[in-house]
Amino acid sequence: MSWFQVQRYVNLPMICTLLRFLYFRLMNSLHRDILKLSIPNVLSNIAVPLAGMIDVAIMGHLGSGLYIGAIALGAMIFNFLYWGLGFLRMGTTGLTAQAYGAGEGKEMGLVLARGLLIAATGSVLLLILQHPIGQLAFGLIHGEPAVEQQAAVYFSVRIWAAPATLMLYVFYGWFIGMQNSVIPAVIAVLASVVNAVTSYLLVFYTGMKADGVALGTVISQYTALLLAATCWYVRYHRKLPPVRWKQVLELTPLGRMMQLNGNIFIRTLCLMAVMTFFTSRSAVYGTGVLAANTLLFQFFVFFSYFADGFAYAGEALTGRFIGRGDRAELLRSVRALFLWGGIIAVLFTSGYLGFGSYLPAILTNDSETNAIARPYLFWTVLIPAVSFAAFLWDGIYIGATAGRQMRNVMLAASAGVFFPAYFLLAPAMGNHALWLAMLLFLATRSLMMTLLSGKVLRGQGTVVS
């Protein structure tokens, strides 16, 4: 691309004006708080998939696609397991942030203890049920026998990281609720580095294969958990009142936490159903369309890394101001979050609009896949504008512990919009219907959460029911 072509898409005076505007906005302490919370989260969001890419690269240098396939299948199982259990982080963040805002030191410690108790219980169940879980998962996958065998080895080793992984979710959520996103980011980056180094050493210096990469993940997760516990002890142990197990096990607050987590879990299952259907239905249109849709979906994934960073900031700030009972500052923080969300959406939309046709070529040099993807490229340009509000409201609702409203919105958007829209439009539109249904799903979430936000921000959504 020549400089003159670049100038067609990049308006330098406009960018300078935008940067000057952002500089003066940053003089506001609220905006600084948002960036202090969001930027480390963006970095940690990017660090996690990078570790997965390194695992694939290590397997890719063993001279056989068998090992790459094994890692892909095994990782897919854990992605489903852990994505479904993401409520451990989200529920902990909202409750902790509200306790922080209210200045209730004892409750901050109790939320962490209850979250760790739930995570430990869940991980014990996963370890006990690992064999039926593995049999069910591989019964549904239907890979080649040699690939499944290596994937089963990977699964049997990595499952032992479950206690560390689930308890890390709780620590991450707790630190963010305490308005500290730097510690989770440092831990995530460290875990990625340890994972890469140990996996490399185990595979290339001990002769291990998929089990070496799995063991590297196990080691990295327990290393990260140890660091998280150390950070908690050094930074917070002396500042918070001691926690007594009798208080941790009180049924009423424990039940409320479980109920909040249950609502978030149902919400996550709906999201998983939509994403899984999108991939499986893409395969119905052929391998070429599946590859093209997977390629284009990375535009959404990449945008989500940044949008989620600001959503996490929304979790922390919303919970803090609700806990403090400061409605004026709560509304200011919401407006500020949407300012940043809008800026991110405009930047990504502009980038996708101006350079989108070049991006697929970065991810693959397969000309056939690029040709198939080209007619669907315009759908991805619309994703940031349609979805950024849904990301931000997710964070705000989590901070408000409005689990019931999140659940209801996701049920309506998935069962009431996404699936009916696809099956209604698919006969006439084919794969375009799949993308349109996805955009309608995202737009419905954005719209419904906006309409319900008044009730949530008035405090009615903070009741865990």
Q: Characteristics of this structure?
A:
single chain, 465 residues, mainly alpha, 20 helices, globular, disordered N terminus, disordered C terminus
SSE inventory with pairings:
Blueprint lengths: L2 H7 L2 H14 L3 H32 L4 H20 L2 H16 L2 H24 L1 H12 L3 H14 L3 H16 L4 H25 L3 H27 L8 H4 L2 H34 L2 H38 L2 H29 L3 H5 L3 H7 L3 H23 L3 H27 L1 H27 L8
Helix pairs in contact: 3-4, 3-10, 3-14, 4-8, 5-6, 5-9, 5-13, 5-14, 6-9, 7-8, 8-11, 9-11, 10-11, 13-14, 13-19, 14-15, 14-17, 14-18, 15-18, 18-20, 19-20
Proportion in helices: over 70%
Total count of helical runs of at least 4 residues: 20
The average pLDDT score comes to 85
Radius of gyration: 22 Å
Count of distinct strands: 0
Describe this structure in words.
This protein is mainly alpha-helical. It folds into 2 domains: 37-249, no CATH class; 256-465, no CATH class. Helix content is 86%, strand content 0%. The chain has 20 helices and no strands. It has helices at 3-9, 12-25, 29-60, 65-84, 87-102, 105-128, 130-141, 145-158, 162-177, 182-206, 210-236, 245-248, 251-284, 287-324, 327-355, 359-363, 367-373, 377-399, 403-429, 431-457. The longest helix has 38 residues, at 287-324. The N and C termini lie far apart (55 Å). The model is unreliable at 1-7 and 460-465 (pLDDT under 50).
